[in-house]
Amino acid sequence: MIPARTITLCLTLAVLAPLASAQSPIAPAQLPARTGFYLNWHGSPSGDVRAKNSFYALWDDPDFAPARAAFLASLVTQDKTHNAKQPSLTPAEIAQYAALLDNPFLLGYLLRPESAAPAKPLTSDAITKETTPSWNGNFLIYDRTGKEELLTKAVLKLRGAETDVPKLTSLTVAGIPALKVERKSGTTYWAEFDKYAVSASEPSVFEEILHLLNGKPIPATLSQSPAFLEAKPLLTDGLAEFFLNISHLKELALDSSSRNPSSAQIKPFLNAFKLDALHAIAGHIVLEGARTRVQAAILGDTAPGSVFDVFSAGQATPPSTAFLSPDTLYYSESQVDLLALYKSLKRAFAQAGGNANTMVNLLDSMAATRLGMPLDDALALTTGEVASFQSSPAFDNNQKVYFLGIQNKPEVLKLTRSVMGDRITSERNEADTTFLKISLQGGQSKAGVAQWNFYYLAVTPNALLGAPKSETLHKYLELAARHADAPAKNFQSVRAQFPEKLSGMSYLDFQRIDWPALKASWIAEAGKAAQNAKSTDKSTPPAAWINDVDPAVFPRHLHTLAGGSWKDAKGVHFDQWLD
Predict the structure, then answer these.
(1) Angle at which helices 266-273 and 249-257 pack, to 10 degrees?
(2) pLDDT tens string 29-68
(3) How far, in Å, CA of 261 to CA of 230, rounded?
(4) Strand partners for 172
């Protein structure tokens, strides 16, 4: 598949590109039906669109320059760390070559044809017979209009800096002059014609893409793929769109396991777990005035008994919102149905039979011994809701609270005592809340048991709260009682923009952050990291750029970060935006 590092780099460098407006090299619907993945970058936004957008305005702000420079330097460092032989670029060169992101490109991956043998080499007098040990269906189509010289310079720069000098062979493919580039790490094919630059790793993929760009019809296109048609509403215009066909996961898993004689039980397991319920992952990135919005979904059949069971049906007002107050500036919540997922896994292993079922029963028995109750009963004590809150403008970790939704408080306390054992150093009740003091570290000597590094829990009738400080828990409980019907006004307006029932939500108010205090905290943490690096002989330097960035630049452009997720009959949907 396409390396995740490549995709991340392409998306990241997009913010550096000068301003332009262009169309995609080719409509993704025209790609072969066996396209497993594509990322379609539409080109950089126009000057007016960019100027109005909060994220781009922050990136382009001169006061953010130290962070930009440090970020570019980190890209170079990461690339060199990943592959010492890979030629590295200076930040200035990356900024220069980032102009290539003015233009649109289409990055994709074609699955191996079902009935095809390993790919054969392209026919040419200069090519000898070769074998392909594995399939690599990567391809790139780049619109090089106006960037011909810069593209040539970038390619020559990279090739000239390689320690593993590649073997270059000229050939003609689909009537187009091309180049075969052979390295020890693999072979790639490259062609530049008309307004396109095309690259691929498999010769058959390279030839197929060239024919496609020349207008040659293909038997089956992505427009005929059920997974693509299902995802089409999400594949709209914007900065970029992406599509991943996961409808063949079951077949791929079976194909992989067929090489292992001990994996004969995998088929009944996959059938029972309904892996074929997954169809596609798709989404798009769009600029909506000041907002940068990402909408995506995991699409498929959400009927009970599949991997979709882990996602809750959602709630309009989950219990964790009772702990929101006007002071809350950060909130993150998700609802998962762990019991349903666990039952689905047990059912799948049971149908697989043999050693798999025996192993699950053994683990189940061991868990019951450790927990003091069957694992099913332990999972049933949780509602599946997990959340975290922060009210400190400086993001003091001692002020962060974690939430776990529960039911049947007496049984939850019983389970907690069984799991924590003698690490519980004190327990007391205040009204309907039980407070526990937990020792995270300790040791025993002749003088007795010494315990330190404490953590605090508060168990209410419907929640288990945790924090590094006892005062923090009391503060949140008091605020919840005092402001139960008056959470932050900005949060209420954000919540209203999502569907009624959500299975997850996140919220961050940038305007309420004490940026100078947060900067001081970052500097202190960077100093600690540098000290730890010295003591452990590591070479990770502190984030020196923090000292040079004016913290006022952040609230100047950033206001709110919010996101929500929900499940329906079509899949699990995600909607996130930054303004």
Answers:
(1) 170
(2) 999 999 999 999 998 887 788 889 999 899 888 888 888 7
(3) 36
(4) 177
Is 448 buried (19+), middle (13-18) or exposed (0-12) by CB count in 10 A?
exposed
Q: Does pLDDT of 87 surpass 60?
A: no
| Cβ neighbours of 465 (radius 10 Å) | 24
Token reading at 336: 């998962």
Please say whether the beta carbons of 412 and 459 come within 8 A.
Answer: yes
State the burial class of residue 18 (Cβ atoms within 10 Å of its Cβ: 0-12, 13-18, 19+): exposed
Residue 465 contacts by C-beta under 8 Å, 6 or more apart in sequence? Answer: 323, 401, 402, 403, 404, 457, 458, 459, 473, 476, 477
Are 201 and 130 within 8 A, CB to CB? no
pTM assigned to the model? 0.82
Name the one residue in this structure whose structure tokens are 């590092």: 5
**Spatial separation of the C-alpha atoms in residues 472 and 468, rounded to whole Å:** 8
Beta-strand pair 571-578/560-568: antiparallel
∠ CA 65-69-70, nearest 5°, is 115
272-283 average pLDDT score: 86
> Which run of H or of E encompasses 404?
strand 400-406
User: Residue type at 196?
Assistant: Y
The candidate with the shortest Cα–Cα distance to 424, out of 380, 456, 389, is 456
Residues ≥6 apart with Cβ < 8 Å to 560: 490, 494, 507, 508, 509, 510, 511, 578, 579
| Segment (H or E) for 399 | none
391 φ, ψ (degrees, to nearest 5): -120, -5
- What are phi and psi for residue 17, nearest 5 degrees? -70, 140
Compute the distance between CA of residue 264 and CA of residue 254 in angstroms, rounded to an integer.
9
Reading the block at residue 259, the tokens are 């090489």
* 341-382 pLDDT per residue, tens: 788 777 777 776 667 677 777 877 887 888 888 888 888 999
Beta bridge partners of 178: 171
Environment class of residue 357 by beta-carbon count within 10 Å: exposed (0-12), middle (13-18) or buried (19+)? Answer: middle
Number of helices (H) and strands (E), helices first, in the chain?
18, 20
Distance CA 48, CA 44 (A): 12
- What does the block give as tokens for 523? 């500097």
